[in-house]
Amino acid sequence: MSGNCIASELDYIIDNTPFKQDKIAPGSWIPVRPPEMLLKDQPDYALLLAWNFAPEIIARETEYQRRGGRFIVPIPEPRIVDFSQPDQDRK
């Protein structure tokens, strides 16, 4: 099973590194967009694959979550981070 199997399902990748924005991710041809796209498009769910940076990303994207957006964090244990659930572990 290839890691690219989900690539066809992704509209874009969010990265806060300006140098990477408005380019294409190598090997997957997925456009790289700035974090502002998350608020502009306001998807119901965002797949957060940078699980090792999840706490910082989740803390930074409070407006996205306040508007009802949720993060799917598949690694190391699959979970959905839902801002509306105050008792939920956000680590």
Describe the structure.
By secondary structure, this protein is of the alpha/beta class. The chain has one domain (3-82): Rossmann fold (3-Layer(aba) Sandwich), CATH 3.40.50.720. Helices cover 20% and strands 16% of the residues. The chain has three helices and five strands. The protein has helices at residues 36-41, 54-60, 62-66, and strands at residues 13-14, 32-33, 45-47, 70-73, 79-82. It has a three-stranded mixed sheet with strand order 3-4-5, with no helix packed on it. Strands 1-2 form a two-stranded parallel ribbon. The termini are far apart.
Order of helices and strands: EEHEHHEE
Total domain units = 1
The unreliable regions are none
Strand content: 15-25%
- Can you count the helices? 3
Under the CATH scheme, which class?
Answer: Alpha Beta
Q: What strand order characterises the main sheet?
A: 3-4-5
Give the helix level as a range of percent: 10-25%
Number of strands: 5
Which of globular, elongated, flat, extended, rod-shaped describes the shape?
A: globular
Question: From the helix content, strand content and strand pairing, which structural class follows?
Answer: alpha/beta
CATH homologous superfamily assignment:
NAD(P)-binding Rossmann-like Domain
Output the radius of gyration: 13 Å
CATH topology: Rossmann fold
Instruction: Provide the CATH architecture.
Output: 3-Layer(aba) Sandwich
Largest sheet: 3 strands, mixed
Average pLDDT, rounded to a whole number, is 88
The N- and C-terminal alpha carbons lie at a distance of 29 Å
